[in-house]
Amino acid sequence: MEKLTYEVYFNNLKAGKASLKLSEDANKENYVLNFELRSHKYLDAIYKLRENTSMIIDRKDFFIYEINKYVRQGRKKRNYQAIFNYDTKIAHINNTITIFQKPIYDPINIIYYLRNNFQLLKNNISFSIITKNTFKTIHMGIINEEEIILNDKIFPCVVVGPINNNQKSDEIKIWFSQDSLALPLKIESKAKLGIIKMELSFENDE
Question: What is the pTM of this model?
């Protein structure tokens, strides 16, 4: 359905490539969302960046039914699988069973929720996100409007991020295009030793 590719920067150094791919599952009942990030070989020797996240998400509200996630930032690694049953409110996360109350998100699928519910950004939005074996609540909203330059073009953007402006490592800031596509043109997250920034590439539009 859609694939977006990104140039990845780490502390403003060109660091690698990333991609976001949204497709339908085999039964066309839900979406499958895949995110991959890989740093270049020359950076791997210093600070290897890897992420592979695969999710089955709801077609309407984009919350998670299943997730498999692997993240590496330097020597720090994080890996988990989880399944969420919204009838029983029981979650299986790795080898643990826990109860949840609200729909569960990851920073990646929050991007798609916001793209399809842009009118809700007039107010702040709260999300329950999975972090390791537990959940936390984050609050997001519009924090700025600014223009960015990509591919020698100027794009007016709405900047969405943590409303307390105190961005944590599992939270993101997103620059959405101010048009009907609401493309995530730029995505920024914190790593232990700096900032990971992704900018949409227009070289292989699909």
Answer: 0.90
